[in-house]
Amino acid sequence: MTEIIQGFFVDLVNSTVDAFDKQLMTSFESVLRVETLAGGNTVLSSGSIEKIYQYIYLFVSALIVLKFLYKGFTIYVLWRDGDADSSPQDMLIGAIQAIVVIIAFPTIYNIMANVTSEFASTIMSLIRLPSSGPSSAGGTGVGEAFALIPLVGMGLTDIIILLIYLILFAVLYVKLLQRGFELLILRLGVPFACIGLLDSDYGVWKSYIQVLLKTLFTSVIQLVAMSVSLTMVATGHIILDNATYKFLFSADGRNLQETADVFQLTAAEQNILLAGERGKALCLLGRQHVHVDFDLPDYKLELMGKGGGR
């Protein structure tokens, strides 16, 4: 019964990691342009987003004209606001800047999104694990590397811990997509922030753009961090003591059997410990087992003395 449950979890983990691997980079494109995630036959299609932006553009353009006339009247006619000695040219330049930014922002954002996507994909390719076969379409190469983990030989507890990790990963994945909708709202709100360009201190324009850029780069950092964590899992770093290393020297009898059960040693690895040769050991790095040969010079052997050991 335990083997059946373990086999079910193994298949579930493998399929889940493969799905995350294939969708991670594609999902980031959807974060930058959430209308591509929604599809073409929904309310949030590319065409509907463009129509909404055009309506906001016309609406804000009217607000800019009204604010320009209102500020001009209160400053230069009523003398009740601002500095009447300042040139009206500054306010006119601000209005022109606002109109230009509103018109050019969709193009500027597409360029910025392409650069950000290329930056993120380059970082992810640098941390990608080498695999024996070609990478999955649209994947990061983690799915192939994940096959390096001997899942079948893992204990049921380790597989459950890995399953919990994948659940937490799915939560972060949903939050990453949530940032896409946040970016969409920020993109649609840029024309309203442009109204602040008419003011001498630029109003909310500076702080608004800072929020937009922070949200954008936070998404990049989160994507890279998720890719790194998936890569770490693919190399077997899923237990709490994965930051430590262990050296196993000679062992035999019941001691060897218990050590093999705890650390899941293969027959070849057990033979290394059973041989008990001087200077030979087994190094455990997370789930990676490495055969180590210690070559000590004579002066170090003299410092160790003659008592004990082989």
Describe the structure.
The protein has 310 residues and is mostly helical. Helices cover 67% and strands 5% of the residues. It has ten helices and three strands, in the order H-H-H-H-H-H-H-E-H-H-E-E-H. It has helices at 2-32, 34-38, 46-76, 88-126, 142-146, 156-194, 205-234, 253-263, 267-275, 298-304; strands spanning 245-248, 280-285, 288-293. The longest helix is centred in the middle third of the chain and has 39 residues, at 88-126. The radius of gyration is 31 Å and the shape is elongated.
Keywords summarizing the entry:
67% helix; single chain; three-stranded antiparallel β-sheet; mainly alpha
State the strand order across the main sheet: 1-2-3
The rounded Rg comes to 31 Å
Estimate the global geometry from the Cα principal axes: elongated
Count the beta strands: 3
**SSE class:** mainly alpha
Which stretches are poorly predicted, pLDDT < 50 over at least 5 residues? 129-138, 140-153, 238-243
Average predicted confidence as pLDDT: 76
N to C succession of SSEs: HHHHHHHEHHEEH
Beta fraction:
5-15%
Distance between the termini: 45 Å
**Number of H/I helices:** 10
Oligomer: single chain
Helix content: 55-70%
Report on the biggest sheet: 3 strands, antiparallel
